[in-house]
Amino acid sequence: MNILVIGAGYVGLTMAVCFSELGHSVICIDKQKNKINALLKGKLTIFEKNLDKLLIKNLKSKRLEFDISMKNVVNADVVMISVGTPFDDSLNRYEQNAIYCVAKNITKFINKYTIIVIKSTVEVGTCDRVEQIIKEANPKADFDVVSIPEFLREGSAVYDFFNPDRIIVGTESQHAKDVIKKLYKPFKKKKFVFTSRCSSELIKCASNSFLAMKIHFINEMADFCEKVGGNVYDVAHGMGLDKRIGVEFLKTGPGYGGGCFPKDTKALASLGKRVGANFNLIEAVICGNENRIKSFATKTLSFVENIKNAKIAFLGLAFKSGTDDCRFSPAIDIVLHLINKGTKVCVYDPAATKNARSVLKTKVSYAKNEYEAAKDADIMVFATEWKQFRSLDWAKLSKIVNSKIIFDMRNIVDRQEALKYGFECYKTGC
Ligand code: UGA
């Protein structure tokens, strides 16, 4: 099958590579020439586990190509739109011009039956609008617009692509359903959920909002545990063993972040307001998560308030481990708060420093590793759960820090091990 993917971001690029791995002929286009040139040379433009090998393999086999031209629509059986839909705070909704612009631009190239799949996370009604745009511009075009939301996570995107919990397909067209089944041929039939476009669009936003709510629940429970003496890890484990609750997304931390949960929760809440069906629960989650990030910054400062010219070693900047993505990262917000209060901060992240630098600029110093960051530090803060932070040399660290205080926002430090070397280790919810 010939597939055209429009937009080579986290979702688009992963999909393009993985669909070519399934044996389809894929062309992925993006308007950023630099990106396309790098990808043509087999250089990944994002940090994503296992994607590099598949990229090179499929480029070599010629099943995967990169380009900048919309003309590639001509040969495509399926066109997948995966351009960015950032949240526009002034409008209080997704900024979807990029999608509508693509819809207009592809119209003149549709010369046979083509399926247009909306992969970007969008507002309810977007597929209808895209259909209308294409029909108005080219009344003779033979096409179907289908909603297939993407559920892959950054950091495990390749695994998620090949192991989906479900494949949601929003369409009423039997022709489109048949083509989509072929597109996802290796996946088991029971994975498919066929529904209307409206429900499909909602499923994506509702799923992310529900997960954000689950995280916020356990974060508030962590605060509760600290007050009454419980251990949030044990509480989450005990709760999660109930299949109706499930163990996933019950890890406490400094709040959820990234390019998806913050905007999808806001989009659902604001849509609720517009249609007169207030989503009070999600509004509380949004507010609670924002307050949590602020309260973690305040808590960090409270540990060093009596130290003159305190230096903070801040470990982890990405919004979670396994990615270089710093969009809406709680870690970045906390660092900004700390520097606004005049504190000296030295940061380190195994993958996200380059992206963080564009926000933090010269307001912090940058270390090459955990040990350089910890030199003369009055507190070590762990804000992202990178695996390598779990096995630090505490003997070495104990000799280079100024004060032996740890604030472990993600509960990754081995407290007993750190204690052996005289560190006080403050955890979250235990
Ligand atoms: C999320 C969804 O999990 C994907 O299914 C979806 O496809 C994607 O958004 C999207 O809409 O494109 P992602 O943003 O990559 O994926 O990251 P998650 O792993 O879901 O983590 C989101 C945030 O929640 C991170 O800040 C993470 O640290 C936090 N989190 C996650 C917790 O604090 N605790 C947990 O137990 C799990």
What this model shows, in words?
The longest helix is centred in the middle third of the chain and has 32 residues, at 197-228. It is globular and about 75 Å long. α8 (197-228) crosses α11, α10 runs antiparallel to α11 (280-303) and α11 (280-303) packs across α12 (330-340). It is α/β, with parallel strands linked by helices and 430 residues long. The strands form four sheets. The chain has a six-stranded parallel β-sheet with strand order 3-2-1-4-7-8, sandwiched between helices. Strands 13-12-11-14-15-16 form a six-stranded parallel β-sheet. Strands 5-6 form a two-stranded antiparallel sheet. It is built from 16 helices and 16 strands. Uridine-5'-diphosphate-glucuronic acid (UGA) binds at residues 121, 150-154, 208, 211, 215, 249-251, 253, 256-258, 260-261, 319-320.
